Amino acid sequence: MLNKSSLSVLTATACTLSLALATYAGPIAAPQRGTPGLIPDNLGAPPALPAPHGIALGPDGKPVPGAEITVMGNNMFFQTVRADERGSFTFGPPAIEPDNYIIARSGNLATSAPVACGGQNEFTLHLTPGVLCDIQGQVEDQDAKPLANAPVTLIRDSSNGIVELDHKQTGVDGRFTFPNNFGDVHYSLRVDAAGYTTGYSEFFKTKTGQNFQTPCIFVKKTDSFVGGTVVDADGKPVEGVTITGQESKDVRTKTDKLGHFLLQGVPSGETSVLVQTADGEGFQAILRGGTIDKVIQVSAPVTGVVVDETGKPVAGAEVLVCMNGDLKDVYSDDIGHFKVQSPQLKTGSTFMVRTTDRGTVQPVIYKGESQLTINIKPGVLSTVSGRITSSGGTPISNASVSLILLNGNSTDNFEQTQTDAQGAYSLPRAFANQQYFVTAEAPGFASGNSDTKVVGSGQTFNFPPLALRPADNFVGGTLVDSMGNPVANATVHDGNVGNLETTTDKAGHFMLKGVPSGKTSVWANGPDGAYVCNDLLSGRGDNILYLPKLPGAK
């Protein structure tokens, strides 16, 4: 059987027919057997290609039995097999794509870098020592006491999606170790301990062959409750609204006929819940554990339609709703309709709409209507461009650039891209007549921000070159409380360098390497939730950070 293949018919002078079989590359209808003058019925099926396969070899060139071989790709494609006793492995369906890649490990051996598939079908993987790293950390409760037997999940984050890789439990000291992980990879950790909030680490990036110590993960006991009433815009109770605790698993309830709800199993103090009406629309609300008098108002949904310059409905248009610092993104359906429901949607909120080539000329101001018609036109969206350089003017390639939209008194990360080899970036489809600024980050440099500019309609706006300072210095010191006592197990990070953080030791000492020279912004978060931010002098280890006392703290 021919499968779905594209065929090239080559006709020679003697009318001799030859067929060249090529890989199927799209929804092309192949000629069928029996087609007059094309494909005879008795043409045999082409030989099937063998499944993707290969062998894993150690540093001595010998096979590595039992090696773990993983192929990864787009759309969260993820397949792992084990090498047999001869070091051989074979992948099953689905087929490996050219842009997939393969990694392998066994004990303390691993591939030194991902192996690009590149359309190959047979692979020889070389495993070497000194590549993998251990990821270690500790889990503590709200009183900074180690939490034993807490389940911890290691999560890998990449452009291919988020994948849970491994599961461990903490020891009696609250500590855990995930051994033999790949370097140069973004990971995060999740803690799911019964009777406690779900704890998360920040995303962090490991280095090849270097063990990684994560900051302490804190979780809170879920031994409290919260209650209240859900009402509509007229103050009438709303039945059937789902209230879900966002800090704990499987904590939810629904309002009764009087709009009342009581949610058990939440932490004391402020806690976040998701409020969802019967039609599925939802929003976040902040409540306080131990109280039952919270009144939550749900508003009626606002519906609308997006139309182009001819009045024709536009499907798939992005509708950005700016609500006093809160942003909501929805899309129009197949007939151009959209729906927005949020308690933050009030008179004065604004709507902006865009497609690939059309947009709103000005934000549409919401005046309390239940229905909106929003017109979009071609030629109004703008492109923001510029260059990222070092302080000496050298272009920085592969810098992460974000376009930030000013929304009332807050900001929103609007678009992201990376610079090319000349340090240049381009961000298309910016809304017209809005205020923006640009931020940039690059390995080995401190992050930088541009000035705020108004980007007009239908133009290419060039921001001045943004120079980043090298992050080649250090900063250290001691974190103390208001009484001068050292604060242990606090997270300290540099506000100018992404993913650079550490934890204070028993004496409150900390050290951050890889910060810009001069003054650098240092943040500290105590175990009780108190925090402080100060500009400290780089190149010194005797800085003092004072952590304030939280209101009501003993």
Q: Can you tell me the residue ranges where pLDDT is under 50 for at least 5 consecutive residues?
A: 1-43
CATH topology of the largest domain: Immunoglobulin-like
Beta fraction: over 45%
The CATH C-level class name of the largest domain: Mainly Beta
Anisotropy-based shape: globular
* Secondary structure tally, helices: 0
N-C termini distance: 78 Å
Q: Roughly how much helix do the residues carry, as a percent range?
A: under 10%
Domain tally? 7
- Summarize the biggest pleated sheet: 5 strands, antiparallel
If you compute it from the alpha carbons, what radius of gyration comes out, rounded to the nearest whole angstrom?
29 Å
The average pLDDT value, as a whole number, equals 84
Instruction: Tell me the number of strands.
Output: 51
The CATH fourth-level homologous superfamily of the largest domain: Carboxypeptidase-like, regulatory domain
Structural class category? mainly beta
CATH architecture of the largest domain: Sandwich
Describe, in plain words, how this protein is organized in 3D.
- With about 550 residues, the chain is mainly β.
- It has seven domains: about 1-50, no CATH class; about 55-125, Immunoglobulin-like (Sandwich), CATH 2.60.40.1120; about 135-220, Carboxypeptidase-like, regulatory domain (Immunoglobulin-like, Sandwich), CATH 2.60.40.1120; about 225-295, Immunoglobulin-like (Sandwich), CATH 2.60.40.1120; about 300-380, Carboxypeptidase-like, regulatory domain (Immunoglobulin-like, Sandwich), CATH 2.60.40.1120; about 380-470, Immunoglobulin-like, CATH 2.60.40.1120; about 475-545, Immunoglobulin-like (Sandwich), CATH 2.60.40.1120.
- The model is unreliable at about 1-45 (pLDDT under 50).
